[in-house]
Amino acid sequence: MAEKDEVWAMVHAERAALVEDLSRLDGPQWEQPSLCAGWTVHDVAAHLVDTYRTTRLGFVVGLARARFDFDRQNSVGVARERGATPQETLERLRRAASRTSTPPAPLDSRLVEEVVHGEDIRRPLGLTRAYPAEAVVRSLRLQARTPASFGGAKELLARVRLTATDTGLTLGTGPEATGPALSLLLAVSGRRPALDDLSGPGVTALAADG
User: Fold this and answer.
1) Per the CB 3.0–4.6 Å rule, which of 5, 42, 77, 192 could disulfide with 30?
2) Predicted confidence (pLDDT) per residue in 29-50, tens digit
3) Distance between CA atoms of 43 and 31, rounded to whole angstroms?
4) Residue 99: left (phi > 0), alpha (psi -120 to 50), or beta?
C-alpha cells in the first residue's frame, strides 16, 4: 500500500471511530464545552464536517471571502455545517467521512485534525481512545515543522524539547517536557488541560505559549 493510501486509511479509521462515539451521546453532551475554546462538542463536529468537505480551491475561495482570517473562515464553516439537531450534524459527518478531499496542506494535517479534534470532543466527555501510535507521531512531527501562523509549533520547539515517554520520539531544543505523545501533541496544539499530563522544566514554556 502506498504511503498516501496508508495515511488515508488511518484518517478514515479515526473518522469512523469518532462517528461511533458521537452516535452514543445524549442531547446535553452535545452542548458540552470542548477543549477548543469557544466551541461546544456540536460545534467541533460541525467543523469536522466542513473540513471533510473542503477542497483545495474551496479553501482558498473561503479564506479570501473571510478576508484571510482563519478564525472567521472556521466560524463560517461551523455555521454552515451545523445541523438544526445533533443527529442532523452527525448524519452529515457520517456521509462526508469517506471523502479524500483536502485543503492545500500536507496530508498528515488530516491526522492532526482527527486526533486533536477527536480529543477536543472526547476528553471533556470522559471518553478515551487508544489512537494508533503512528497517527499520533506523524501528527506531532507535522506540528513541529509547521509555523504557528498555520496552527503549528515550529517556533515553540526552538525553545522546548519534547520527549514522548511512550514512543521514544524526541523533538525540539531547550528545556525538556516529557509525557505521552498524545498529550504532547495536544499541548503544542494549544490544549492547556494536556499540560497536567506532562513533567519537566519545558512545561513552563509550553504553558507560557498557551
Assistant:
1) 42
2) 999 999 998 999 999 999 999 9
3) 8
4) beta
β-strand partners of 45:
none
**pTM of the predicted model, to two decimals?**
0.91
Q: In what order do the strands lie in the sheet with 170-172?
A: 170-172, 161-164, 176-179
CA 53 to chain centroid? 16
Give phi and psi for 121, each to the nearest 5.
Answer: -85, -50
